[in-house]
Each structure stands twice: as C-alpha cells, then as structure tokens.
Amino acid sequence: MAASVRPAAARGQGRRSRPGTSPDPEPDRSCVPSVGIGREIRARRGPGSTPCGFGTCVAGEDATRAPAWRLRAPDLVVGFDDLALGRQSQNLRDAVGDFVIRRVEGWYAYQLAVVVDDAAQGITEIVRGADLLDSTPRQIHLQRLLRLPTPAYLHQPLVLDAEGRKLSKQDRARPIDRDNPVPALRAALEFLGMDPRGVAANVQALLDAALRQFDPLRLPKSVAAPAEFGRQ
Fold this sequence. Notes:
Helices cover 24% and strands 19% of the residues. The protein contains six helices and ten strands; from the N terminus they run ββαβββαβαβαββααβ. The chain is elongated. It folds into two domains: 5-156, Rossmann fold, CATH 3.40.50.620; 159-226, no CATH class. It is α/β, with parallel strands linked by helices. It has a three-stranded parallel β-sheet, with no helix packed on it. The protein has a three-stranded antiparallel β-sheet with strand order 2-3-6. It has a two-stranded antiparallel ribbon with strand order 4-5.
C-alpha cells in the first residue's frame, strides 16, 4: 500500500482548529489550567527556570481571563527512529514540561491539532524540517494517549546562512529568481546529497533527476547545515 506523505509546507505550525463547543477537559488533572503565555510564565518564574513541570504553571483563580489548558508532561522518555537522523529520544518533563493543548482564545494548539489532523487523513509518513524535531515526542505522546497510530518521521536538515540562521522571509532571505530558478534548484539538490551535474539546465530535468536520485541516506547527518545561499 502506498504511503500517504504530507509535505512540511502544508503542515505549518500556524494551523489552528476552530474553537469547539465541547466542554473543558474533565478534572482528572491530566490537563491543568494555565494563565499567561509562555514568555509571561518564564518572566514570572525567573531566569534559568525549568520547564512547566507537572503542574508548576497551574493557574490561580483569575476571573478576568480565561486559562489555557496544558497537558501534564510525565517523567517519560519518548523515543523514535527518524528515517534521516536515526534514533531520537526526549524526556518530556525535563525537556519541555507541561505543554499547551488549548489556547486562551479557545483555539486548539498546534501539537494537538496536528496529531488529530494527521490521523483523520490517514497520514503514514511525515517529511518536514528539523526545526520540528523537538515537537515529535510530544506528538507521539499525544498519539498514544488518544490511541492513534504513529506515522514514520523524516526530518530534513535546515539550510543556514553564513550567520547560522535558518533561511526565512522574515530574516530577509534572498528569494528564488523566478526568471532563472535553476541555480537555486541545483544548490538545493546538492544540499540534499544529490548530484545535478550533467543534468540539463531546466527545471523539469532537474526535478526528474531528483526523483531518481533522492536517498534519505545521503542527507546531511545534522539538524542544520550551512549552504551557499545569501541574504538581500
């Protein structure tokens, strides 16, 4: 059976579900209310503080604002085999602590929404950037709690500029030249471990070569790596 693969571009972290009409989580204390966004909590807890561990960011009574809801992070190591980066593991309580699953506005947060969305679509393989590697153990934990299947994961390394920053529009990364995209496409294929030499200098020929040559074992064995891309 062919695997269902959803590219990272379609899986942006900005995706949020609509506020539902279902009741708030039952008070079994696996979910706890929390007042304040992340930076407010960090400021309240002081510099060098540990993550929101097992209820340490529980909200007090505050009738002026609705709380977010956090899932309590157990003292549990979640591991998985990444198809590019190998064995990965994370202690949820130590690394991330209690994490938000429903925001103060009533939206369901990314970590929960993406897990339910993937399961609803029958996604079996997820290919995305390594900047989401840290989110994967939380998502696997949620999958297990909800008794949903866990897909296979492949995290591709991030392309960095000369200053060590991820290429992005907000950091003024240079856009692809629409009139001549071939140089950027060649650079991208080389970064992913392919050899575009000898391939005709047109987009379709390069994409066809990429389909023939792509091999996860050729990907850089790091979360991020520099490449010959510049900024404006």
